[in-house]
Design brief:
The chain has one domain (about 5-155): GAF domain (Beta-Lactamase), CATH 3.30.450. It has four helices and six strands, in the order ααβββαβββα. It has helices spanning about 5-20, 25-40, 75-85, 135-155; strands spanning about 45-50, 55-65, 70, 85-90, 105-115, 120-125. The radius of gyration is 14 Å and the shape is globular. Strands 3-2-1-6-5-4 form a six-stranded antiparallel beta sheet, sandwiched between helices.
Length: about 160
């Protein structure tokens, strides 16, 4: 894997070890959320929103109480789900239509989880620090999401 930092190489290896013998997608989402929440600095929320009936529904997460349902194309998570593109937002307060589940969040990264070409969920990570997420985070988290999606396309 080119351009992935040692930190994310370690998280990727830990992710693969956590999910390798488990076929339940919810259990794996829960452990990945906990792993990321524990190891990422300046993160106040990490978790998944699952695609159910054309909207995002709260899945396993670590952090404060969260929004339960998010329509496609609404907020950062909905934009990610609607476009299929990673959303790396330096200042969520400047994002048109941002949904503030936690007013202390200032930056966010959301990655689509695609299994067999379909978006089944998004991984959402929030931070209290502005400009928290950079291209190294995007590359590393994309590798983790892809490993998770690949595992579940095979199970």
């Amino acid at each position: 894997m080119t351009n992935i930092t040692d930190f994310y190489q370690t998280l990727l290896a830990q992710t693969k070890a956590l999910i390798s013998d488990e076929s339940d997608i919810i259990a794996n989402m829960a452990n990945i959320s906990a792993l990321l929440f524990e190891h990422l600095e300046e993160v106040n929320w990490a978790g998944f929103y699952r695609v159910i009936n054309e909207e995002l529904v709260l899945g396993p997460f670590q952090g404060k109480v969260a929004c339960i349902r998010i329509p496609f194309a609404k907020g950062v998570c909905g934009t990610c789900a609607a476009t299929g593109l990673v959303q790396r937002i330096s200042d969520v307060h400047q994002f048109d239509g941002h949904i503030a589940c936690d007013a202390s969040s200032n930056a966010e990264i959301v990655l689509p989880v695609k299994v067999d070409g379909c978006i089944i969920a998004v991984l959402d990570i929030d931070s209290t620090a502005f400009n928290r997420f950079d291209e190294h985070d995007e590359i590393g988290l994309t590798a983790i999401v892809e490993a998770f999606a690949q595992h579940h396309s095979n199970t």
